[in-house]
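Z., the sequence and structure:
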Amino acid sequence: MSLFCAAFFNGNRQIAMAADTRTCTIINGEKYQVSDDMTKLYDNGNGFVFYCSGETEMSKEVASKLFELNTENLHMETIIKILENVYSKHIELNPTIKDFKHTLQLVIPMQIDGLWSVVYFDNENNFEPYLVRAATNEVYVFAIGVGMHVAQPILFNLLNNTNTKKVNVFDTFLDAFSKAADEACGGSLNYMAFTDDGIVNKSAPIPDVKHIKRFNKFTPPMEQGLGDGLILNNDGSNKSGVAKISKPNGLWSFIYNNNNSAQERRLIFQDNGVELSTETGDIIIAHDNGSLIRMMHNGDIEIKSQGKIKITGGEYLFE
């Protein structure tokens, strides 16, 4: 998961583009930042620039194969074949990749007759090339990836409402990426612009303006029990008959999903207290001597004592 933005200026005669460097992982539907040092905007030093991101190892392999090509071999058919072959290889190695969207994206800027455009490839569209450029003289912003709905309007509004000869375009990109930053987008901003004054190449840390959940501070849940195979999770693993111990921020939970119906029985230690609860069945607090408090599934409460029951309070309210 990443963020890439490209801004077209002066009727496509200039272009500025940037990408982040953050990688993340998804655990139980939650995103966690893994590292901030993944290259996504590549430059071979000889005028070949491209953005490639998605599943980490897959995008790295595509980038490596593109760098192996000679400039004269940069044909659309060759690029598509590389994308298709690498994607198929990794899907065979790890079929769960297909469960996620946009797992391999490639953007290549091109200048033809002095005008800039970008060609966008995505596994969601079977790597069919999509040509993007400004249709008018106003600044057009193309964005893909997580945070695009935050960054794109910021860039579009600021770059169109300000004299772009006076505005610091790099700082505008940095501000937009900072506001879009989360567990899947952030790290450093790698920026490149092709202007009338030449090539501008910059990099700077992206400030995180919100709390970021980080994988190195994550304690993975521990599961116990094989399950009975009757109720399954979305990933196909057993849910009923399985217990899970987890330690997310602010609590420590023990949850058992009962056999047959996977109804929860919970013991949760929270920062503000302790929860003992159940979806179905009874809750019993008991002593081996026979004393007990039973909260029954039908709403009744049973209190039984083998000795005396003492109740003391400053006030008694019976409603």
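The radius of gyration is 28 Å. Residues 284 and 294 are 4 Å apart (CA to CA).

Let me know what you think.
H.
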